[in-house]
Amino acid sequence: MRRLQDHLHDCSINTATLGFQAPIAEVIDAVARAGFGRIAPWRREVEGGDVNAVAKHIRDAGLSLSGYCRSTYIPANSEAEFRANVEANKRALEDAAVLGAPCFVMVVGGLPSGSKDLNAAREQVKEATAELAAFSKPLGVKIALEPLHPVYAAERSCLTLLSEALDWCDEIEGAVAEPQVGVAIDCYHVWWDPNLGVEIARAGKAQRILAFHVCDWLVPTEDVLNDRGMMGDGVIDVRAIRAAVEDEGYRGAVEVEIFSARNWWKRQMDETLKVCRERFVTAT
Amino acid sequence: MRRLQDHLHDCSINTATLGFQAPIAEVIDAVARAGFGRIAPWRREVEGGDVNAVAKHIRDAGLSLSGYCRSTYIPANSEAEFRANVEANKRALEDAAVLGAPCFVMVVGGLPSGSKDLNAAREQVKEATAELAAFSKPLGVKIALEPLHPVYAAERSCLTLLSEALDWCDEIEGAVAEPQVGVAIDCYHVWWDPNLGVEIARAGKAQRILAFHVCDWLVPTEDVLNDRGMMGDGVIDVRAIRAAVEDEGYRGAVEVEIFSARNWWKRQMDETLKVCRERFVTAT
Predict the structure, then answer these.
(1) pLDDT at B107
(2) Are strands A103-106 and B142-145 parallel, antiparallel or unpaired?
(3) DSSP characters for B55-111?
(4) Predicted ipTM?
(5) Are B235 and A192 inside 8 Å of each other by CB?
């Protein structure tokens, strides 16, 4: 298991952690100044601007991406809407390639409006993911399916279990030496899963762990969307999960992603980054 | 699949649905007056009172129990606390027998204060469940393990997946013709699970479905604890889940359990019961 104090170049800041308070250029500079080597920007910070300039700014700051966030939701009530969602993701994948993202994080979407059919939503996501994997391979960007906590099944992700994400990977491309489709494992979403250890081992052996995200589950949680905690402030044994992931050979980035409307988003970026750095060492 | 309009005697009101507005005697009368045949009372309505009198009132009203709610949480930081939790459940099981409950619903508890060790909590629950199953068998009350939605893993239930509940049943008593330990399947907790169909079939074939609870998942959900919906008001395909359960031979009660601080708990009992009756027919 890596000592993260010796691996700050592998530690990544997902920019959502900083609450989107400042333009991406300032965020990049703050992350680099704090000593980290990786960053995960969001499309809202990039799209509509000069993607090449953002890419250059990131490189010039000495940073590289750990991933690019995130997909347009896939499930739709019509073929036209479904196609539009897939195409929006293709445009984002082109940007991901310009930015040098190793993977594109797919939060797949929940039930389309009015639907109660989770299985139909899942079938749409699998179909779209297969198409996006084929599209993104020549771009050098992998597809990271992120199973979300089941509390988001209705509105954000019909994909909830790590086991299911891995089943989809197998279904989409079979067992291959260098997978194009893999998973983003986020502690917040999977910490409760009794099969977590087994599925991390499965993902690792199949070379499918493309991203590893950390934060904490607060007790009590006031809002399941935007009340996530800094590592060490909650009940997730983040270090044990990181150990399991690294035992399987994962040496990619450790990315902190915290949605925290009532706490961290209200603080100065530099302060949050300082605490992230401490907690990478003491509680991750 | 049963037509519930012809099976109101199999339809049960979990008294939490009515918000504990009135003494249990009035609740029993209201449930019977509304035409239902089953009721699931809570310990808070029974303990400290005359249990025999409550049992007689239920019988005299023409009702029987679908279950008795619910266990004292098991996981503890000390052996003494663990023992106290087990003993509290034994007293509740004795009351369950007096009340004629077919099963005692176990909401098993989450992490003890200060702990991050879900697996240790799970081991405590398995140990306690085995002891409670042995204790309750001569009483004629079965143990219904209720996997809760993973959003409650920290504070209410380290048991989240139906598959895990069934694994525990097998571990505790093996495959037996008439199990003493089974599961309570609540749509709210399991609707999102991609393995739901497979696990319902497994539970049914093993004769382990001891209770079936219905309500709905609202979009948006304002509070994951107390903002549950009436069947038909949310995104759960309740009828499909009931069909799966009944396809496996389940002919027990269909119990409505709705925690709804902002809506149903503010209404008169008779009104809520009237809507329950309608929705049993139209949306369950």
Answers:
(1) 98
(2) unpaired
(3) HHHHHHTT-EES-EE-PPP---SSHHHHHHHHHHHHHHHHHHHHHT-SEEEE--B-P
(4) 0.97
(5) no
Give me the pLDDT at residue A164, please.
Answer: 98
> Domain segments of chain B: what residues?
4-282
Query: What one-character DSSP code corresponds to residue B227?
Result: B
pLDDT digits (tens, 9 = 90+) for B250-273: 999 999 999 999 999 999 999 999
Closest approach of chain A CAs to the CA of B55, in angstroms? 37
A235·B111 Cβ contact <8 A: yes
| Residues paired with B138 in a beta bridge | none
Q: What's CA A273's distance to the chain center, in Å?
A: 18
Q: What distance, in Å, lies between the first and last C-alpha atoms of chain A? A: 11
Determine the distance from the C-alpha atom of residue B206 to the mean position of all C-alpha atoms in its chain, rounded to a whole number. 19
Phi, psi of A182 (to 5 degrees): -150, -155
Closest Cβ–Cβ partner in B150, B154, B237 for A219: B154
CA distance A76 to chain B (A): 15
Residues B25, B51: Cα–Cα separation, whole Å: 12
Give dist(CA B122, CA B128) in Å, integer.
Answer: 10
What is chain A's length?
A: 284
Residue closest to A96 by CA, chosen among A45, A150, A145, A141: A141
Q: How far is CA A187 from the centre of its chain?
A: 11
Chain A residues 17-56 within an 8 A CB cutoff of chain B? none
- A-B C-beta contacts closer than 8 Å: 73
Closest CA to B51 of B15, B10, B86, B101: B101
What is residue B262's DSSP assignment?
Answer: T
For B105-131, give one letter per residue: b (16+ CB within 10 A) or e: bbbbbbbbeebbbbeebbebbbebbbe
**What pTM does this model have?**
0.97
Which residue's entry shows tokens 């509304």? B34
| Chain A partners within 8 Å of B154 (Cβ) | 192, 217, 219, 221, 234-235
pLDDT over 70 percentage in chain B: 100
> B193 at the A interface (CB within 8 A)?
yes
E strand or H helix that includes residue B212: strand B209-214
Ordered alpha helix ranges (H), A103-247? 118-136, 162-173, 187-190, 196-205, 238-247
**Element of type H or E holding A142:** strand A142-145
**How would residue B48 be classed by pLDDT, with cut points 50, 70 and 90?**
very high
Report phi then psi at B63, rounded to 5: -105, 160
Q: Which of A150, A193, A234 sits opposite B149 (nearest CB)?
A: A150
Q: Estimate to the nearest angstrom the gap between the alpha carbon of B40 and the chain centroid.
A: 8
Interface probe with B: pick from A160, A219, A221, A235, most Cβ of B within 10 Å: A235
Number of residues assigned to chain B: 284
Residue identified by tokens 């297969």 is A130
Distance CA B115, CA B112 (A): 6
**What's the whole-number mean pLDDT along residues A183-210?**
98
Per-residue pLDDT, B141 = 98
Fold of A4-282: TIM Barrel (3.20.20)
